[in-house]
Amino acid sequence: MMETLHSPLPLYAVTVSLLAALLIGFSGRKPNLREFWTVSAAVVKFLLILGMLLPVLQGKVIEYSLFSVVPGLEIRFKVDALGIFFGVTASFLWIITSFYSIGYVRALKEHAQTRYFICFAVALSATMGVAFSANMFTTFIFYEIITFCTFPLVAHKQTAEAFSGARRYLTYLLGTSIAFQLAALFLVYFTAGSLDFAAQGILAGTGSKTLLTVIFVLFIAGITKAAMMPFHSWLPAAMVAPTPVSALLHAVAVVKTGVFVVVRVVLHIFGVDLLAELGLGTALAYFASFTIIAASIIALRQDNLKALLAYSTVGQLSYIILGAALLTPAAIMGSVMHIVLHAAGKITLFFTAGAIYVAAHKTKVSELGGIGRKMPFTMIAFSVGALSMIGVPPLGGFISKWYLTLGAREAGQMPIVAVIVVSTILNACYFLPIIHAAFFKEPSPPGGHGEGHSHKAWPWEKTRYDEAPILMVCALCLTALVTLILFFAPSVFFDLAKMIAEG
Amino acid sequence: MSEHLPILVVLIPLFCALLIFLAGVFQKRAAWAIASLATFLAFAASVKLLALATAGGRISYRLGGWEPPWGIEYVVDYLSGYVLTIISFIAFMIAVFSRDYVKKQVGLDREVNFYAIYLLLITGLLGMIVTGDIFNLYVFLEIASLAGYALVAVGKKKGAIVASYNYLILGTIGAVFVLLGIGHLYMVTGTLNMADLRGLLPGLYHSKVVLTAFAFFVIGFGLKFALFPLHTWLLSAHSLAPSAVSSILAAAVLKVNVYALIRVMFTVYTPEFIYNVVPLAEIFFIIAPVAILAGSIMAIAQTNIKRMLAYSSIGQIGYITLGLALANETALTGSLIHILNHALMKGGLFLIAGCIIYQTDIYDISRLKGMGRKMPVTMAAFTICGLSMIGVPLTVGFISKWYLALGVLEAGRWYFIPLILVSSLLTAVYFWRVIEWAYFHKAASEEALPGRKIAEAPVLMLIPIGIIALFCLIFGTAAFIPEEFARRAAEFLLGGI
Amino acid sequence: MMIELIQGKYVYWFYITLMMIGFYAMIAKGNLIKKIIGLNIFQTAVFLFYISIAVSEGSTAPIMLAESYGSLDAGTVTYTNPLPHVLILTAIVVGVSVTAVALALVIRIYKTYGTIDEDRIARLEQESP
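Predict the joint structure of the above. Result:
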């Protein structure tokens, strides 16, 4: 079958940011040195992952077994196409986010910056752990680590509001993962005698139909990081976090971990054939469709920009689940491609939201009139991200929607095609007015909204441009550019997605 | 030398207890050193015994050279070796911890007495573990209990004396029940040797006397290890005793009494008897879930940190009994690992509470705000032990829950899975509350402790809690070590079926 | 039937009655000393039980007299089983120790609260936390 390489590279890729977290902790007094560690860890991690990309593209699998906790529970890493796909996405975006973060926390003079960077680094380690884990046990451990180490990031502001948001975040993520996911783990191990991911799943022919259905439902309910309704409300609550956190964690690392694990479960625990046989794929697809439509409708009514983005994320994540649930090769390709394409687009949007907050202290959609003239780079990047979300060519988002639609047709699910079309229209309905307002509306007069911005009157007349710090603007332009490039040159991701879809 | 180890494990603390009284007359400071040394030697001997038992099987020691079943026999097998090591280790850690703690929280004038009684308690506990004679078990049980009553009352808290008195009354009832059980068995068999009893009893399983005896054992030991609903004494005794004493009571005394019940269940009676003749499992299936839920829910309602820990013990005992009732090797392995797990984390947590009380006199959880900064080592250990209590992967708590859950499924009783998970969540609620207060809230008011800056506890108190927390992690990651011993012990216990 | 049951096992009914008396005192009495007395009765009941199981009909004290050596044919003389007596000696020692510790505790309770009545102590506890 597939050639297997044994190499500790995946372990290094996971631990490099843990090591960085230590170094960051020790150099808390010297901000420049501290930031140097963050950036260099991000770069080293990315290079390590690139080093693994080549063998994976040649059809090899990299494995590394760390140790067994008890017989049957092993901490083992396996880098396959799906894992590396997610790994490359998250680690590349971490580099950009690092720069953006530095600009953001310094501009706002945030407190507890060292804790912030430590938790960030640990979160990335854990994300890589999820991406490269070879069995459900390893996945579960890193999944929980992500929950714990992002709690301080969400509660960062330490206000009553931040705590209530963070507590909801923790309650949902930890509660469901213990109550449902762990139960699913017990049942899988009991029925299949193993938790390893296998290309065709491990559950086929092991248990009764009822049992397998229960396991599947427990998994879907337990992987709340995927923000499927009705367990989605932690994500808007987590928007109290600083914007870079929302950007990387709640557009890329945390939520993508959720959908990634769902895809893993669908493909490598259950297997496409088994799910098709049980008819669970279709059920999940309709469930995801409901989330897509409902989240888009809720997003329409949001005035807080980050909340709007959060609900948009809820909807978009369900695209990925939808694709996997359709169980056809094209749909799975669309689903996997959407992991990277949505990541690039949504991170751009969050970056711009953060830039607007830093430069103009605005958080509401209704306050954005005319802002495009003052922050042209930011708002152009915003437009790119938003159009990619809608799925307008020539932007990345188009590719995944194209394949999803193809996949839905392949599966003979015309209602799903309709869902995709309706959701695209809804996406347009909540993004386009913002772009329109930003570029073509007159700015509201300073103080006119009586919201009382913390800094003095917004100097509309004096400066032509009033952008956020250069580090932030560069970062968001870069991710916007990536969204564009991914349309024209998706080859690497495309090849990987093909490998995943073909098993 | 090594052939005398089974008796030395008991004699070392016993003679050192007397030595402490003598030495205390001349040099008070020697008391702590002797107690630590004695517990360390007992620990070293236990490790050696465990190694010998693992390599060569059952070790039998004849007291005074008398052949069993006439003479008293001490037995070290997989089970007793495993429990012996855990208990003597915890005893050593708590002895080390006590030096500064006892000086301040118990008082200099009672220091010598404290250590002497502490060693008597350890003597009783270790004796209960190694003895193979059922009447000898009772004698050691009473030695340990008497020392325990005295230790609860030794502190400065006013209510502790009343708590100790109530503990004494209920504890004695429990011990008398055990004595009655022994009497009934002796009446029909004429022997007191456990191995001999095991051989003689099967023919008498339907005799009412044998059944009555078993009921007396379950109730007697159940009272001693706070089996729900016989737990009422535990709350005040564990929460009002000095923390070092709470720690040994929760980590060692409860565990050894559970062990004693296991020993009676499996090596005096047989698995055949307890699962097929008496409805013990059915009773435990009702008691254990109630204990688990009630313990966790009541723990959430507490504001006093020590009361919270005491309530949580009741729930944890529920886990162990659940595993005993499930009648398969996996679940029993889970139970035995949980004995280790609970000994480590609850022992550790009470010591940590001791550190906090020692430095700040704070009992109220909500006043722990900002403690993460002021006592970083203590709170880090608290976090680790707390995570282990919740059962987060890579802590030893996860391993015991894993085996319990698999055992539940193996027994075909899937409806206990939600119970295990829900109680994990409830545990998460009451521990996360403390962790959040300690780390993410600024200390609201320094005026709560006027003129005193909160700092870390003395290093001799930090080392034991650090080691215990570390072991929670080590046995959670390298879990095959305890798993190996626990599985062998479970195999040995269930050998009959 | 019932009468036979009581008659044949009257020793056991004695010890059970004694036990219940002791148990009642421990549970129902508010006076801490009376509780200890109840505890003693409770323990004594068990001691008597042990002694009673040692006896077999027509047996003598287990003392070997020099002159009986010669006539010691198997089965002619039955002795009372000495082992329960020995066990109970140990248990009595334990019982005395328990009583001593309990009395010591009561003395300290009296010094602290000025009363040995359970209800009053509980009230005092509630008043001064």
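The two ends of chain A are 12 Å apart (CA to CA).
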